[in-house]
Amino acid sequence: MDIRSQVAMVFHLDKCIGCHTCSIACKNVWTDRKGADYMWWNNVETKPGTGFPTKWEDQDEYKGGWIVRNGKLELRLTGKGKFLQKIFYQPDLPTMDEYYEPWTYRYEDLFTAPETDDQPTAIPVSKVTGEYIDIEAGPNWDDDLGGSALYARNDPNLEAMTDEQRLQLLSIETLVMFYLPRICNHCANPACVAACPSGAIYKRGEDGIVLINQKVCRGWRYCVSACPYKKVFYNWSTGKSEKCLLCYPRVETGQAPACFHSCVGRIRYMGVLLYDADKIQEAGVRPDEELVTAHREMLMDPFDPEVIAEAKKNGVTEQIIKAAQNSPVYKFVKDWGLALAPHPEFRTFPSLFYVPALGPVTYSVENGVALNPTSADEIFAPLDQARLPMSYLASLFGAGQEAPVRYAMKKMMAIRTWKRAVTVGDVDMQVALDGLRESDCTPEQAEAIYRLTSLCNYEDRFVIPPSHREQAVEVLTNPLEKKGAAGFGFREQPVRGA
Amino acid sequence: MLRHLNASRNFKLMLVPALFAAGSLAQAQDAEAQFRKSCMSCHTIGAGKKVGPDLKDLGKRRPHEWSTKFITGPSAMIDGGDPTATTLLRENNGVKMPELGVTAAEAQDLLKLIDDYSAQGKTLGTAAISRPATPEDIRRGRLYFTGDLRFKSGAPPCMSCHRAQGVGGWGGGWLGPDLTGATAKYGTGLSGVIENPSFPTMQGVFSKTPASAEEAFQVAAYLKSVGSQPPAKRDVAFPVLGVIGLIGGMVLGGHLGRKRLKGVRKNLKPKARSLKPEA
User: Fold this and answer.
1) Where are the domains of chain B?
2) pTM, entire model
């Protein structure tokens, strides 16, 4: 066992309202700079949709992530031999067009325009060239299914569905959508780190945050192509690549990252996971249908004495282990099985997990009067008739396997029904309890899930251990080495009695 | 006072011939430089025949007027059917004296130089090596041409600017002309031309680092051996092959890179067809 600690995340999609506050918080803190203005380290996508950059999930185009070749885990983009062929011309680089050309408006024209019969306008100008730009794309161009005939219908996840399901998903009467906020997943097996020719990208030992050393980066941009989530961006002004750094200066001081902190719907959770790094290689080559299980098997029980002992051997402190035991992420992912990693088939083992969104609540109407529901099936449509087909969610969160998605959806629906029986009382309690049992849940667990979902405070959502930067420094240098050697010294030595 | 004046006058009288002597010395030096530059590749003074005749005692053989006219405009004389010029042409294996762009004044100086040297019995220049070229000479000449053997003076090899048939590889430089047919043009005078070139471009390089008479003879021998071979035909296949190779390379490159990322957003197509229910 090689137990390491990882700062991990859960996004509860059932609570996301798609307001983009997280994106704006991140943009204001980190990417409001020349060359970085097209980057959205945090973005919110509407699903079904093509996302940002366009169709990032389509690895036939972008060649991101890992694949199993002859029983070995290899980058889809490159290999040891292929790497040399491509080093000076990398054929799989997305252009700015796949993202969008950033623009602003010439606001000064509003004040300086000569007096005419028409109102002055501020024309859009490119932030790259400064010239007039005919805006054709933006980071959330397909927000709320805008232009769905083009964007939603080109969602790569629709490939997994039948024509009938596709028709149902996108016809106007049964239209459905949900939001998918995305940041860097700080993967356990990051493809960007593996692809970097300069060795500029690294995964921090103490908390697993993946960072790019801006002094070492040479702008090869292999990370940009290799990341299957397209969360490494090339700064065209500095010639270096940049990515989400999980606001590590905030995390190190015990604060949640800016996007987490600003989240209006409180959908974001952060906590420590202890994982066994020895299992990564073995788990990486498992067939698609076992990937969700393999990923969960990597995440170790923080209460297991053996795991604790092994973690301490690796320098994981007592406080980190304690944080891991209180981790909301561990509960959502392992204890409750509600949270799922996006596209496990990319085999990077993300540290960001999503609780899938439920479908809309339904009512039966008789003679114009809404009837009280009597069972779970009457509050929510049965999963097989859900507006959002399970095959879609399975493509997004289950590497094509519906079982883990169904498990999570069923459990969440059962908890809603049970809670309704408790508080509203219009559902038969026995039916609700049967529903819980059928979905592998006890009333105690249901209560815990309800509390962490609906009544969660700051401390419940963000369990961030102290990062002990002062100890981390000691690994590299002796902090007492320069004691007494620093400072300006005396210009004139004081002399006793003089 | 008077004595002083006399002294002064005497001094002036002494100065005049001194100045005159210095002037004529400078003139003589200019003329010699001119001779080396313009004449010496083909002529000597008192050292024997080269491409053209030995110019010793030229003043005694021909009037200066004729010589001046010939030096300043040889083609006009030869083409104009001047009897002496025609005879000379025949005597010297039909090698025409080139137009050297010498002015009449310069020609006068040159003739004076020739007369002075003849009178004093001095020689200028070296006669052509008259022994027949051996295969060893040809071999060494080729090495000098290609630069495998360096000229003793450190001059650059011929191949840096010239090409000749059978040099192999890329064939040599394209700055100067192809020397394959040089023998046909200069005949036995070739080694003189090499030793003491009268071309401004070559003078710039070789005036300070001339080839020795022996080296020049061997290079000339090599060029003669090359010149007797039939000239190579210009190979059309090679450039055609180049163009085909270029097009083929581009097609191959495009084919190998056909799976590259060619843009995603701009290639998005509305997918209406797949949304129709299966009837």
Assistant:
1) 2-120, 135-227
2) 0.71
**Minimal CA separation from B259 to chain A, in Å:** 8
| pLDDT band with cut points at 50, 70 and 90 for residue A452 | very high
* Nearest by CB: A167 against B261, B265, B275: B275
* pLDDT attached to residue B279: 42
Over the stretch A272-301, which tens digit does the pLDDT of each residue have? 999 999 999 999 999 999 999 999 999 999
Going by C-alpha positions, the residue among B52, B24, B22, B56 that lies closest to residue B38 is B52
**Who wins on pLDDT, B52 or A36?**
A36
DSSP code, position A462: B
- Which residues of chain A are within 8 Å of residue B268 when distances are taken between CB atoms? 50, 54-55, 150-151, 154
What is the set of domains in chain A, with CATH numbers? 3-260 (no CATH), 287-461 (1.10.3650.10)
C-alpha–C-alpha distance, residues A341 and A132, integer Å: 41
Burial bucket for residue A498 (CB in 10 Å: 0-12, 13-18, 19+): exposed
Interface test with A, best of B256, B259, B261, B266 (most A CBs within 10 A): B261
CATH number of B135-227: 1.10.760.10
Say whether the peptide bond before residue B17 is cis (omega within 30 degrees of 0).
no
pLDDT value, residue B231: 60
Q: In this complex, do A92 and B260 lie within 8 Å of one another by their Cβ atoms?
A: yes
Q: Do domains B2-120 and B135-227 have the same CATH topology?
A: yes
Q: Which class would CATH give B2-120?
A: mainly alpha
User: ipTM, 2 decimals?
Assistant: 0.77
| Helix or strand run (H / E) with residue A369 | strand A369-371
